């Protein structure tokens, strides 16, 4: 049974999920706070986009441009992180575009002959933000160092987090010496 953008919006309202539309009202946009993930401007939030395809029979929930790799020598590590994350999460695709270094996460849900429930929609939308947050350190490491880490290995995660904090302190020190103010 096809679904409409208006119906999805009403379901999100019922679930208490704040959202808006793009200019031509073909997509729903919502932001979620995160713990570990920082977006491209350094904020702890992720954009989740909801759209429909094939006359409302396919619902797509995605996080476009959630990670960006700028160093081409780290692209293989980013691609491997995408493959590993995709194999960990059956219904999600982690897509890497080497043309601009963008990593996007996407979930396509077929609603062709079934009814989309509020519980399903809420799980997909809120779950997308949780997945981005879960893999934040994995992609941050692949993008900045070109190395892979296992999110299930707490010791390795602790080492990588300590290294990330050291690099962050070092960049702040350089910025303060240069007279540039950095906000947390």
As laid out across the biggest beta sheet, the strand order is 1-2-3-4-6-5
- The name CATH uses for the topology of the largest domain is Yope Regulator, Chain: A
The level-1 CATH class of the largest domain: Alpha Beta
CATH architectural designation of the largest domain: 2-Layer Sandwich
Helical fraction: 40-55%
Which class best fits the helix and strand makeup? alpha+beta
| Shape label | elongated
Order of helices and strands: HEEEEHEEHHH
Low-confidence stretches: 175-184
- How many helical elements? 5
Main sheet record: 6 strands, antiparallel
Mean pLDDT: 85
Number of strand segments: 6
Radius of gyration from the alpha-carbon trace, in angstroms: 18 Å
Distance between the termini: 47 Å
Structural account:
- There is one protein chain.
- By secondary structure, this protein is α+β, with helices and mostly antiparallel strands.
- The chain has 5 helices and 6 strands, in the order αββββαββααα.
- The protein has 2 domains: 5-151, Yope Regulator, Chain: A (2-Layer Sandwich), CATH 3.30.1460; 153-184.
- The protein has a 6-stranded antiparallel sheet.
- The protein is elongated.
Summarize the SSE layout with pairings.
Blueprint: H1 5-15, E1 20-21, E2 27-33, E3 45-53, E4 58-68, H2 75-88, E5 93-97, E6 102-110, H3 118-134, H4 136-145, H5 154-177
Antiparallel strand pairs: 1-2, 2-3, 3-4, 4-6, 5-6
